[in-house]
């Protein structure tokens, strides 16, 4: 990373814009930032840190007043920094948050912070990000250094790198953790502690389950009295194995008891079977005895019913004989009834004919029929008049309709004349509407193009939002890819270091006694190195391949982010800064105007169509008016014809009506008299026919009685019975016969068994069966309890034994896990009390110390060497990251706090440079082309200052530029390239080259 240009305005002590061109010092390689104390030398480094990371370390714990106190309300506060990395050349413009006077209402308001990141592409600056979170994400990928790492390897600020030398283990661990991101090892320690606690909880739970199972089994053995001799006093004592052995012995005794109970149950079941068989036999004999007695009683009752059955048989026989006469008797009865009904109907018809008051010489069926025929013929002549009378209202309505049509035809002629007079004004109105619509429709094409442009802007705005979401996802993928690249680079570095560390062992493995060593040429090899950590070249090649794959993924992710940014810039050109909401609103307005123009186009067509229709209507009116006049003449002619027909119909109706109210009334009266005459004729004929039929039926009945056993009709009628009563008598007789035969057979079979007359007693057999069942139930219960005891006790013993066996394996696993967790956490057997994170940081610290000693040896002319110390701290304080100084003059180590001011500076400088090298390597081997040192060179004497200058001069190798902040005059003499920071008369500071 190389800084090219810095612009500061309204920041710290600088009011006016100050420009620092770092490229001017590239040839010199080293330059001095000089000035009086308080002039603002360190503020230059503050501006660099603020521009890249948005914060200044020395302001973080207090007032963050980055804005210059010399600024007026309208002055700006801004830092612009240009830098380059392997990814390209970039520019960051950043403004801090500050209070300014409000533009409205008075008082103060907060001016929000702002930041923008640009890249130099094709000879112009192209915007990449303009939000703080986006800029931070981009700079993380570009710089590949966190702020802590940047301050430790590029900006060596006042009191920072000396603090690392003099810090205790706890403070040094905090700094190294931030630099090397080793918090994950603390997470590993926490996860192992959690696993240890979980395993311990599970082990305790399993042991508790084993003990609970044993106690439950022992209580069961005690309650069932299964303990052996001398065991009852030793319950729950001894080891788990001993307790299991005693329980197994008790289980064998329980199984023996179960066998005894099963044998007793079988014997009880045999006795119960015999008792139940005896009881069954006694119950069968008692039942047969009861059936015999019941059969005797039934036979006595059936014999007593014999007289009644004989009488019923005689009644049934007479009823069946009378059944042959039922038809003739019924026919005579029906004929008599029909004759009486015909006579009654004839009397009623005579009375109705008398009421009609029609005079006939003789009233017979033949004379009545002749009179009816005559009246029917006469009424047919009146039907035409009745139809005319009935149609009179219709004819009147036709006359009214004709009058109405004549009036309507006259009104239509008048309406056509009126409409013809109004048409000229209507035509003029339509012409005006057409002209107005034509002016609006002429703008439709322009409005359509404006709407198309609004659609394009809206689509571009929507696409921009989608691209921003894709860009966020791509940036997250880039972060993941960068993290994977860092991990692969770290793994490769560690393998290379282990490969180098194992070279001695690898060479020693190839030594052969008596043959020359390929390194030193010696033929004797008294102490060859051990090859304890073999790393092959293939392992390194595999790690390099993994690193290359990760690097490719990182480049592809970066290309994806760049492509999305460029595509977003193109889309933003179309949107012209509009959001999707604003673009949608503009599209809605354009669509509304376009729709209005389209409506005007439709209105123009409607107006032209209406004008054409109105013009055509004018010509049509002339034709319609002539047709209406012709219709009026025709209507008047039809009215005259209907009036003539109405007069003729009225005359015909009056002639046919006679003395009645209407023709229909006269026809109805004659029709009623005809019906009465014909009804009387029919009734007279029916009465004569029914009389003849009755006489024939009586004669047939007398012949049938003569051929039967009955004396007269009355005797036959009394013997007749309904079919249901005959069926009932027949069923009763048959049932009595069947029942008597059945009871006789049953009684005969029971009498043959010779059963005792005295009632049979079941008391003895029932008592014996009851006693046998009680004994059998008791035996079953005892066997079931014994079986339950055996099963439950066996399950408890088996479960406890299985759990105990599993707990032994679990306890062994827990011992290993506990030992590992304690070792990682610095407890128990960890003699150095070092946690896993401290152990990893100690390895990093050893590399830092080794890198620092390569410079400190020259700077101290071989006297001092820094050493990593893992000695235990007093009173349990954090340890493992100590640094002591080895003094070659005394051959002893001593604390770093015992060094003088100059010695402390040289040691701190060497340690800071060594830390910068290691951090740079861990960050992926990035190139550091610019370095700043802000430290107290005034504490050095002349010789020591020369040594420090030689060391700094060596840092220029490879094109590196080193900036030093100091007010020491001798350094101003030695370093010609300088930036001078001085205060002006107004109190603000300025920078001169």
Question: In terms of quaternary structure, what is this?
Answer: single chain
Helical fraction equals 55-70%
> How would you describe the shape?
flat
Strand order of the largest sheet: 2-1-4-5-8-9
- Structural class, by secondary structure, is alpha+beta
Strand content: 5-15%
Name the poorly predicted regions: none
Terminal CA distance reads: 23 Å
Major beta sheet summary: 6 strands, antiparallel
Rg, rounded, reads 66 Å
Work out the helix count: 24
- The residue-averaged pLDDT reads 79
Number of strands: 17
Characteristic key phrases:
993 residues, alpha+beta, 67% helix
Short note summarizing the structure:
This protein has 993 residues and is an alpha+beta fold. The protein is built from 24 helices and 17 strands. Helix 7 packs antiparallel against helix 20 (763-825).
């Amino acid at each position: 990373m190389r800084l090219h240009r810095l612009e500061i305005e309204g920041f710290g002590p600088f009011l006016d814009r100050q420009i620092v061109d770092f490229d001017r010092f590239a040839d010199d390689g080293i330059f001095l930032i000089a000035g009086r104390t308080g002039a603002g030398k360190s503020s230059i480094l503050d501006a660099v840190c603020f521009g890249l990371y948005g914060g200044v370390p020395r302001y973080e714990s207090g007032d963050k007043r980055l804005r210059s106190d010399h600024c007026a309300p309208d002055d700006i506060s801004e830092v612009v920094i240009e830098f380059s990395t392997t990814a390209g050349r970039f520019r960051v413009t950043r403004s801090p948050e500050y209070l300014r006077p409000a533009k409205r209402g008075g008082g103060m308001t907060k001016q929000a912070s702002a930041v923008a990141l640009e890249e130099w592409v094709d000879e112009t600056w192209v915007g990449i990000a303009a939000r703080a979170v986006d800029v931070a994400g981009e700079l993380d990928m570009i710089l590949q250094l966190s702020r802590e790492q940047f301050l430790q390897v590029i900006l060596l600020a006042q009191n920072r790198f000396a603090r690392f030398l003099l810090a205790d283990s706890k403070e040094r661990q905090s700094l190294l953790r931030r630099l090397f991101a080793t918090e994950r090892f603390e997470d590993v320690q926490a996860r192992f502690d959690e696993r240890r606690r979980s395993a311990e909880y599970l082990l305790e739970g399993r042991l508790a389950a084993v003990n609970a199972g044993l106690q439950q089994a022992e209580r069961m053995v005690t309650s069932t009295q299964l303990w052996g001799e001398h065991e009852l006093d030793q319950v729950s004592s001894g080891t788990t194995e001993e307790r299991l052995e005693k329980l197994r012995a008790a289980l064998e005794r329980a199984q023996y008891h179960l066998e005894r109970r099963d044998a007793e149950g079988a014997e009880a079941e045999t006795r119960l079977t015999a008792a139940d068989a005896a009881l069954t036999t006694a119950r069968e004999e008692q039942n047969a005895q009861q059936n015999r007695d019941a059969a005797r009683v039934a036979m006595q009752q059936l014999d007593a019913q014999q007289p009644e059955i004989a009488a019923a048989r005689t009644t049934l026989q007479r009823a069946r004989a009378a059944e042959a006469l039922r038809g003739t008797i019924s026919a005579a009865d029906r004929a008599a009834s029909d004759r009486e009904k015909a006579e009654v109907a004839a009397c009623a018809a005579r009375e109705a004919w008398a009421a009609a008051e029609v005079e006939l010489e003789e009233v017979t069926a033949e004379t009545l029929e002749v009179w009816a025929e005559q009246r029917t013929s006469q009424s047919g002549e009146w039907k035409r008049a009745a139809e005319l009378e009935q149609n009179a209202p219709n004819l009147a309505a036709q006359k009214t309709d004709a009058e109405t049509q004549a009036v309507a035809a006259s009104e239509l002629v008048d309406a056509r004349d009126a409409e013809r007079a109004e048409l000229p004004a209507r035509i003029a109105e339509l012409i005006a509407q057409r002209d107005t619509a034509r002016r609006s429709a002429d703008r439709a094409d322009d409005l359509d193009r404006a709407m198309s442009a609004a659609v394009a802007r809206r689509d571009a705005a929507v696409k921009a939002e989608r691209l921003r979401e894709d860009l966020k996802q791509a940036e997250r993928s880039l972060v993941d890819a960068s993290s994977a690249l860092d991990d692969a680079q770290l793994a490769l570095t560690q393998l290379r270091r282990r490969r180098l560390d194992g070279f001695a062992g690898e060479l020693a493995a190839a030594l052969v006694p008596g043959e020359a060593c390929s390194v030193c040429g010696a033929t004797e090899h008294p102490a060859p190195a051990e090859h304890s950590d073999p790393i092959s070249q293939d392992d390194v090649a595999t790690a390099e391949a993994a690193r290359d794959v990760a690097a490719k993924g990182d480049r592809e992710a970066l290309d994806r982010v760049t492509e999305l940014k460029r595509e977003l810039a193109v889309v933003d050109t179309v949107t012209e800064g509009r959001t999707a909401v604003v673009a949608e609103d503009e599209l809605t307005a354009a669509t509304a105007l376009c729709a209005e123009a389209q409506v005007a186009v439709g209105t123009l067509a409607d107006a032209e169509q209406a004008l054409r229709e109105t013009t055509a209507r004018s010509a049509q009116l002339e034709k319609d008016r002539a047709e209406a006049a012709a219709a009026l003449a025709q209507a008047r002619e039809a009215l005259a014809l209907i009036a003539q027909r109405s007069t003729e119909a009225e005359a015909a109706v009056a002639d046919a009506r006679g003395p009645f109210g209407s023709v229909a009334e006269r026809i109805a009266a004659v029709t009623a008299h005809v019906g009465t005459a014909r009804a009387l004729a029919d009734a007279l004929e029916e009465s004569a026919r029914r009389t003849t039929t009755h006489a024939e039926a009586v004669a047939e009945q007398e012949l049938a009685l003569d051929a039967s056993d009955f004396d007269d009709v009355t005797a036959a009628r009394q013997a007749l019975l309904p079919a249901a009563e005959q069926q009932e008598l027949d069923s009763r007789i048959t049932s009595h016969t069947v029942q008597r035969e059945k009871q006789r057979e049953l009684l005969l079979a029971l009498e043959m068994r010779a059963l005792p007359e005295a009632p049979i007693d079941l008391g003895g057999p029932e008592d014996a069966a009851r006693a046998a069942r009680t004994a059998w139930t008791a035996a079953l219960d005892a066997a079931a309890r014994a079986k339950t005891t055996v099963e439950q006790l066996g399950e408890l013993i088996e479960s406890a034994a299985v759990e105990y066996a599993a707990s032994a394996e679990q306890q062994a696993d827990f011992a290993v896990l506990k030992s590992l967790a304690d070792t990682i956490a610095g407890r128990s057997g960890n003699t150095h009390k070092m946690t896993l994170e401290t152990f990893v940081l100690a390895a990093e610290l050893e590399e830092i110390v080794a890198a620092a000693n390569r410079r400190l040896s020259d700077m101290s002319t071989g006297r001092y060497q820094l050493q990593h110390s893992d000695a235990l701290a007093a009173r349990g304080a954090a340890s493992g990251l100590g640094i002591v100084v080895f003094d070659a003059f005394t051959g002893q180590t001593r604390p770093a706090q015992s060094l003088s001011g100059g010695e402390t500076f040289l040691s701190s400088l060497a340690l800071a440079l060594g830390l910068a090298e290691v951090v740079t390597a861990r960050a992926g081997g990035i190139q550091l082309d610019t370095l700043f040192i802000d430290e107290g060179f005034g504490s050095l004497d002349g010789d020591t200052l020369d040594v420090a200058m030689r060391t700094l001069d060596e840092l220029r190798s490879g094109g590196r530029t080193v900036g030093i902040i100091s007010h020491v005059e001798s350094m101003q003499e030695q370093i010609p390239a300088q930036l001078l920071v001085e205060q002006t008369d107004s109190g603000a500071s300025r920078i001169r080259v």
